[in-house]
Amino acid sequence: MHIPSLKDSVSPDEWQLRCDLAACYRLVALYGWSDLVFTHISARVPGPEHHFLINPYGLMFDEITASSLVKVDAACNKLSESPFPVNPAGFVIHSAVHDARPDVQCVLHTHTRAGVAVAAQRAGVLPISQQSTFVLGAIAYHDYEGVAFRDEERPRLVADLGQANFLVLRNHGLLTTGKTIADAFLNMYLFESTCQIQVAALAGASDTSHLTQVSPAIVAGVAESMRVQTSGLGGAFVWPALLRKLARAGSDHCV
To answer: Is the pTM of this model over 0.85?
Structure first.
């Protein structure tokens, strides 16, 4: 389906945001984290209006372009013309986080097998890899309450998230936040890698007592390690490299 370009209809800042968010969707598909047309990645549009960009419901993540992204308000009402609907049920989670965390530009949510597998494990994320130590420095958990379409779940989800950037939605999946789209993606890369490593490690051990765990003293200092090791890396180094990766794959997301 042809979707007319919005490049000349929106501000330069919004167009750049659209290109970055479309790239994020393409990368999520490229890394195998998508779930058909389900889950969302949302980004706050610059300005005081509390508007957001979100995927058109019905497009696969590797089909999404800058112009096909739909602008919505905090209640997920469409603010721009689109032949596609939006999925307000999934946006309950995103709108709750954006409303409670003005520091967050991007919210990324996945249903990967490894992520759901760890979300189903009572112990949650274990300190058994370097990747996990970065995650454990800013992690939170939210108990499963069924499909997230009820507004009454919002205050409990927000309370559980607090100021964390990594959220395990028990029996459901993973969620990351970021001050930029690049940061949210890099956080999910760390989160997903952590879960894949944990699932693989547990597959080769009869129980957790056979796993070597990182010292609690090291885990306790991980928040500072995250600040030093990852602050700015998403936007300065990792994100441009990822965009080059998409370009080599022939991606047409920024149209």
So the answer is: yes
